[in-house]
Amino acid sequence: MKIAISSAGKKITDNISEVFARCPYFIIAEIEDGKIQKAEAMENKIANQLGQAGIAAAQLMAENDVEAVITGNIGPRAMDALRQFNIGVYYDKGVIEEALQKFISKSLEKVQ
Fold first, then answer.
1. Helices and strands (H, E) in the chain, number of each type
2. Tens of pLDDT along 68-96?
3. Which CATH architecture has domain 2-44+57-104?
């Protein structure tokens, strides 16, 4: 399962970004058998887009086969677009690696 986390930095030890579509990076983590198998940073080139960044970010998640997103906050258009792609949305704050562990242990509540 692929999970995207809006990130303030390039590592899973960095913090979750408070914003989804305009975060500096996305950490794309692959979870298998209850473990983080791989985590890679992807620069968010949509962050400086003038309009419809939320929709474009949701499209990017779908193109990368992401099944869930963890973020600090998300706008209504991005939420609607993620819903259309059947991508789950979860809110959390703090360190990305800790949020991933909460996701794995099913202690994060799904927003949509």
1. 3, 5
2. 999 999 999 999 999 999 999 999 999 99
3. 2-Layer Sandwich (3.30)
